[in-house]
Design brief:
Helix content: 40-55%
CATH topology: Rossmann fold
Oligomer: single chain
Number of helices: 4
Strand content: 5-15%
Largest sheet: 4 strands, mixed
Length: 125
């Protein structure tokens, strides 16, 4: 998990550089981590990279725990935004929420903060 997070953030930065090189504006990209477990590798440096990226407004990082996911570790990884536990296997509802949220953001101006609707029907607290 730690290596996947680090690699994902690195690939995202490369892609953002390509987009900027083509003169396009960039919305703050969203990164979703969906897991049903816990890291099996060193994850603390990945958590630090997530915190740095969030603090610099480079990404918005969301973590979703499924089943027996270790929510305590997810809290440490996604420090800026509390992790959410998926209610059962309501992936369809989660992706519908994600699609609607991204649509709202895409209709705004880059750099503008958009208030997201709270997860309903797919998340348990």
């Amino acid at each position: 998990m730690g290596e996947a997070i680090r690699q994902g953030l690195e690939l995202l930065q490369q892609r953002k550089a390509e987009i900027r090189a083509n003169g396009l504006q960039i919305f703050r990209p969203w990164v979703f981590l969906i897991t049903d477990g816990a890291p099996t590798d060193e994850w603390q440096s990945a958590a630090a990279a997530v915190r740095e990226a969030e603090a610099g407004k480079h990404v918005a990082f969301f973590s979703i725990g499924v089943g027996n996911a270790n929510m305590d570790i997810l809290k440490q990884i996604s420090n800026e935004r509390a992790p959410v536990r998926l209610n059962g296997f309501r992936f369809r509802e989660m992706f519908a929420w994600l699609s609607g949220s991204l649509q709202r953001v895409s209709q705004s101006n880059p750099g503008t903060e958009v208030q997201l609707e709270a997860p309903k029907g797919w998340a348990s607290v």
